[in-house]
Every structure is written in structure tokens, then in C-alpha cells.
Design a protein that fits this description.
The complex is a heterodimer of chains A (315) and B (187). Helix content of chain A is 38%, strand content 26%. By secondary structure, chain A is α/β, with parallel strands linked by helices. Chain A folds into two domains: 215 residues, P-loop containing nucleotide triphosphate hydrolases (Rossmann fold, 3-Layer(aba) Sandwich); 91 residues, no CATH class. Chain A has a six-stranded mixed β-sheet with strand order 6-7-8-3-9-10, with helices on both faces. In chain A, strand 7, helix 6 and strand 8 form a beta-alpha-beta unit. By secondary structure, chain B is mostly helical. Chain B has one domain. Chain B is built from eight helices and no strands. The chains are: A alpha/beta (315), B mainly alpha (187). Chains A and B meet through helix 1, helix 2 and helix 3 of A and helix 4 of B.
Amino acid sequence: MELIVDRLTKQYKNKIAVDRISLTLNNGVYGLLGANGSGKTTLMRMLCGVLKPTSGEVKFNGIDVSEEEYRDALGYLPQDFGYYPEFTAYDFLLYMASLKGLTKQRAKEKSKELLELVSLSDVAKKKIKTFSGGMKQRLGIAQAILNNPKILILDEPTARLDPKERVRFRNLISQLGKEKIVLLSTHIVSDVEYIASAILIMKDGQIMHKGSLGEIISVIEGKVFECSADSKTAHKLMADYPIINIREESDKTFLRLVAEKPPCETATVVTALLEDLYLYLMSQPWHFSGGKAAMLLFSFSCRFQYARSLCIQKL
Amino acid sequence: MFIGTLTGIYYYEVSASVIWVVSSVFPFISLVSMSEILRSTTYNMDELEMSCKHNFLEISLIRLEILGIANFAVLISILILLMGKTDFGFFRLGIYLITPYLLNCYGSIFVINRLKSRETIYVCGVVTAAVSVLNALSAIQINDIYTDKYCSFWIAAFIILAVLSCKEIMELIRKMEELKWNSSLTA
């Protein structure tokens, strides 16, 4: 089984949302990380045939994305999806099953089985409009695997799930990944860290890094430092280095940051995490995008918290 | 309600003014069709439906077909019932009833093809109301609008609107086929 993406591009007037991405995906779970506006959802929509590429190809075992056979092997959970208001959970799955080409009998069996799997059997006959966000998300996950797809594309599937549901979901995806190609995009780094066999980091429409967790973290291995510093030093470090975490302690400021060499005398090197890499990569210079706004906000937020704590101390 | 209306038309005496009343109401039947076309977009189901084996285009075409047949059945029923009640022949009566319907079809599908939003159905509603009011006002203001004096106008309007409606429907199908980007889906 092989999903081949060949120089896939999507361009709108003066913006390139996806820029010549080429990938080969086999069985396993692939985590797609990227800030808002990096092109993750656009890429996923092109892989699902929802969006027509400007150029490039997507093929699964030689079958082009525009063909019915491709969609027959596909399961998709969009980032944001709705429902017809009169539908119950069971009706919704039956409707999606009919669109996916399941027979009536098979649709009924599969719907009941999947409602049980996502713990919605008790509310199968209730209208979806009465559901919480987490329940709707679980229903969305269920419809994505109705047709036992060979390719599963999940766009921020854990967004509205609580921690317990998220763990259940991770276990489910891990099992599915053994015999399927699963591509899941998320902002929650831990979702991808524990279950993905390969991680793709996307920025400004391009794949910046691709590989197993160990391979991609090696980019910043030995470059993540923690230190406690006085306010003046902390202020300088914040201006000079990408900061991952700030914590105010009694008389010092604790910082976790990325640097080529120890940034101060008290700095100690620590094991790099995926989140460190993600934040470090997102802080590199880029064209204006929603991701930049998010990072600016994050950076300002850290600086604001620090400035606020300074003011409180002086008062 | 439809059967009740047909029964009313059949059993009760109707005057010639029933033509502009029925032709003003008929565009609302096409509004039902428009709401069906836009159903997926309105309820944010289009992305899910597009990714399925039997996809968006197939579903939409089937919906259009069924609605077209239903609308046609309604039209024929009303025509048959009204034919005996007025002095107009089948085709002439058909033109008087269908022309506002076609105007609404053209206007609504024009909007659907150009506006990519979940509120498009409300705009189509405004178009329908405008066509209905325009038709009613025209009939009231121009007393002889259904006479031979304006016959060529009605025929020309019918032909032009039929061609324009077909053009917009082809454009709609072409857009569905090309998997056009919907601005409301922007991440």
C-alpha cells in the first residue's frame, strides 16, 4: 500500500498555500504538525479530493485522487464538520454509510458496531444537536472508519476531546495504523509524539522536517537548555533566544530555551522534546501568516507575564 | 396543502387573476429546490460528502433531477386544472406560469454560482421574494399584461430566461465537477 504525493501545489492569486510537496506514505501513523495557516488543512483536503490542486498528483496504489476507487478507500474527518439537524447519531452513520457505498445491512451492522466503539450507543437515537462537542467529534471519528478505509485522513481529530477520550482515541489510531495509512494533523504535540511512526512538520506550505521522532528531534538535540537567572539576565535571554517556557520563581526566573551553545553560566542542557522542536521551528523568520501571529502572541504573552511579575515585585 | 390547493382550484370558480397569483407563488417552489442544492453547504456537510465514494456531484445531480421532476409534476397539475378555468391555451398558460419561475431560477442559481457562503440561501430567499413581488406588481399595474398585446414579450422572456437558466445550471454542474474551493472552508 502506498500513497504517493508528487509535487503537490495549491496556489491562490498571491498566496501559495501548499508548495510542491512530495511524499510517499506507507502503512503507519503519520503526524502532521504545523501552525495555523501553514497549509495542513489545504494539503489534507487535496489528499481527500475535496480541493483540486493547482499542480501535482496524488495516487494511491496507482489510483488517482479524482477516481471513485480512491474515495472508496478513503476515510476523512474534517477539522470542522456539520450535520443535518434532524439526524440522530444512528441516522447520520447510516447516511454516511450509504454515501460510502455500503449495503443497507452492512451499514446497520457497522453503524451499531462503531457507535459502541466510540461509546455513543446510549445516545444513538438522540439528535446530534443535543450532543456536546466531544460527542460530535467521536461521531465524526466513527463515520471516518465506516467503510474500513485504507487511507485515513484526520484533521485535528482530538480538538474537542477530554484527556481520557484523547487517550482512547490514540489507542484506537495506533491499532488502525498497523494496517492503514493514517495521516493526522494536530496542534497537540503529545497526540503525535506517542503514536506517530513518522512526523511531518509543515510551515508556509512546505514540509520542513520529516522523519521518526528520534530523527527530527536530533535537529535540536543538545540545543535545549534550562536555566534560572536574575531578572536582568532573563530579560536579555528572552530578547536573544527562542523561549519555550518561562516560570517565575521566588527570586529568579526559570527559562527553557533553544540555543546553539549554553546561553549563560547556569544553563544546563536537557533532553529535547518534540514540543521544543516545534516551537523552535515556528519561531524562525517567516512570511506573515496566522502562525506568525500565534507565535508573536505566545512570545508577547511570555514577555507580558514576565513584565507583570516585575511590576508586582516592585510594588 | 398542495392537494388542498389543487382541490380548491378544481371545485371553485376562479377568475383570470388566479394566473398572476399562481405565477407569483410558483417561484417559491423553486426556492425549495435551491435550499436542497445548498443543503450541504448550509449545514457544513459538503466537505464530508465530497470525500465519499458517491460524491457531492452525484448527490447534487440526483437531487436536482428529483426536484426537477417534482416541480414539473406540480406545474403540469396546476396547468391542467387551470386550463379549463381560463380562456388561455395550455402553452400560453404555461408560459405565463413558468416565466417568473425561470426568472427566479436564473437569479437564484446566479447567486449560488457567485456567492460561496452558508448564508446564500437567505439571499436566494430575497431573490425569490423580489421576483414574486415584481410579478404581482406587474400584473396589477399593467392590466392587459396577459393579453395578445404582450404575447411576444412573454415568449421572448420565456426563451431568454430558459437559455440563461440552462447556462447557469451548466456552470453550477461544472463548478461541482471541478471541486471548486469554497471560501468558507478556509483554514
